[in-house]
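P.,

For your records, the input lines for the assembly:
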Amino acid sequence: MAIQLFVPNFRIDECLAEIRECLEKGWTGLGFKTNQFEEAWKAYTGLQHAHFLSSNTVGLHLAIELFKTKFGWADGDEVITTPLTFVSSNHAILYSRLTPVFADVDDSLCLDPDSVAARITDKTRAIIFVGIGGNIGRYHEVLALCKERGIKMILDAAHMAGTRIEGRHAGYDADVSVFSFQAVKNLPTADSGMICFQDADDDVRVRKMSWLGINKDTYARTASQGAYKWMYDVEEVGFKYHGNSIMAAIGLVQLKYLDGDNAYRRQLATWYEEQFAGQSKIRLVKIAKNCESSRHLFQIRVKNRDELMLALNEHEVYPGVHYRDNTEYRMYASGKGQCPNAHLASSEILSLPMHMRVTRADTERITSLVRQYAAE
Ligand SMILES: *Cc1c(COP(=O)(O)O)cnc(C)c1O
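Structure tokens returned:
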């Protein structure tokens, strides 16, 4: 039987019941379930603020745009970022006409604080840290650099739903963290995301920015009833980036299962680790000691990645690669050659199947194939 990298697990009847409520009420848009989901997310994570969006990608754009306008950053100012990420993280910088500056990664595949320090200039305004696979890496050292220099920390927490660091949910100490609830993330909806600011004013403002700059949400206007529903003001040229109640309805259900699902992902990781123990051809990407990872990914490194990938595909096992070095893309060629660790990792990494339908027997089959085909 074929084993895919990701297969989302939806609690179908419960999701349909939540969606049914939206349909019966005649409320599928902003407000209603989106408010409920924001409250549930805050209660779950302990984060102070949360605003539900149509994706993580738009959240990263909003984060940068909000800070740029708030602090008067100029076009061309710099944001330090990683080449090992989904392009969303880096597109967000370009959307706001800022300059991505690529720093290298360490063995965790997250940003290396030494490389980050070497890239800081008097034009550095923010750092985008990606907690790859749910791992926190050496984030706290990068955060310390930000604090010393008044640089904003933007945590791309797309992989981090359910990641805890010393018992606290990821994001509690970032200026802003942005989560993804895209179809194959740990908390899958279809497409949506959450933006969580540290500062209460930023949370107020992002609610306007995500709804075209309008200063009241539709639901609040409807609830207030009567005349004057249309009497909102438009305070700035915002975007249409907010989430909707159908996605939030699915999110509310999926959130209940997130910890249980992540515990199973950690179990899968433990099985993979045990089965790879004592061999030299396969390097495992280590999780930081203080981090209880969401285990969005289980990544290994091998010398003959492309060959191994094809061999596994022959056996109907379909792993993934997270990610191709972004400086290989034409849009980010400016960073080419600056991040040798990321570049090498990009040719060696492989993400093994991680989802609720992978069994212990599957992990045994996968690891024995990997051991068979990995080169010395
Ligand atoms: C999935 C992902 C995103 C984008 O999330 P969307 O919700 O699909 O916009 C951004 N960054 C990383 C690291 C991701 O994996």
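Two observations worth noting. The pocket of pyridoxal-5'-phosphate is lined by residues 55-57, 85-86, 88-89, 130, 156, 158-159, 180, 182, 193 (CB under 6 Å). The chain has two domains: 3-254, 256-373.

Regards
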